[in-house]
Design goal:
alpha+beta, 27% helix, 287 residues
Length: 287
Amino acid sequence: MIHPLAKGERLNKENAMSTFMKTHFDTEGPFGLPMKDAQARTLEQRLKALPDDDAFTLRRCAFERGVSELQPGERADVSWITEETPDRLGDIVLASGMDDSHFQLNPIVTLNHAYDQPPVGRSLWRRKARDGTLRGVKAKTHYPPRPQGWTLSDWPPDLAFELVKAGLLRGKSIGFIPLKMHAPTAEEIQKNAGLANVRYIIEEWLLAEYACCYLPMQPNAVVETVSKSVPGAWVELLGMPTPPSVAFTSLDTVETMARRMLTPGIVEVRLAAACERAWRKARGQVE
């Protein structure tokens, strides 16, 4: 799926500049993206060189193909973050055109692009990849272990990696800016009829961000895992289904009922009645 943003539009108008994690970012750059100062200055210059057209704006895409390799020993996964298939706008992003120089300056991996939350990982590399006819970009994400000085109860990378291993956080969502594109030519369409419905082929693009994201899957499995291990704030942030409320019987009530059932005299009566029913059933008598 893909979501374009106008050049002057903020990513989240409610997420003010003061709410991003100052430990990982310096300022709010173009499109409202938190970033390092050096990133912001460089990106502003690159944007000035782009055509004044909504096609050359920040977009976000989430890819369902997601995780292709788990590496538990390294606390890492390798995932598809792009693929050369038409998106919802009818555009194809070529893997060969990726420029990750901007992202490399601060390769933070967030949870669902939530910059007001601690990052869940760090991107170790991004590479062009091919699997049969599928082409795209794969990235390796490392989920760092809890540091000794961490005093809060939950360490976000731990939670994220557990969800990745459970198959619930299987998607990766990227933010990118097209740098060069063209509409398919008649010659290209003649060679590949599938390009007839393609709007643009994005030849060059700048990777701005990527995040772990939740993509809907088998609902019962999601609810079961969510009810066991996912903090309530994450359920809302990721858009996961909310576990149903379950009727609760207190221990005091259970103990009271048990005492009533085990009262001297009542137990003997219940056992006698049960034996009588079993005897009648064995003799073929209908209750």
